[in-house]
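Archive record:
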Amino acid sequence: MDIDRITSGEITDENGNFLVCLPSGYNYGINVSKPGYLFYSENFMFEGKHTVSEPFIKRIILNPAKVGEKMQLSNVFYEIDSWQLKKESIAELNNLVTLLSENKNLAMEIGGFTDSTGSNEYNVALSEKRALSVVNYLIKSGISSSRLKYKGYGNTSPLGDNVTIEGRKLNRRTEAKIIDLKK
């Protein structure tokens, strides 16, 4: 997957608004963060014709950093039928390293999910290995293993159908959930 990244380093205005001009017809990754909140990430194909008078508007709501809150790591990618992290995942994983480094009281569970292709046993094992590969990256980046857990959920919590390509893609994901806020 080719993702064109524009790193602007810009900060939003007082209302949380940010304007950027992007050419359509490309894949983009977006990351939004704010102290005290989980970050938001997404990758998407920017399509259509948009103008200054009719811009494309994307509303993003950040979840507060509290026990039970989770975020989807939308820009973490694996090789097909593997737990090998793709190089396109590094920026997203580094955002998670930053979040954990700046919030030393957070403990997180990394959860791996699959689509329904394959047996339940295979999917649970694959999703667990994928979650573990993220945890290993975090540990290698200086995050204490005592703050991290991992679990493979297989196809137990689908977000989309398992019939269409789009539905299966939604189901193959990695999530990070706050499991403790140590004082």
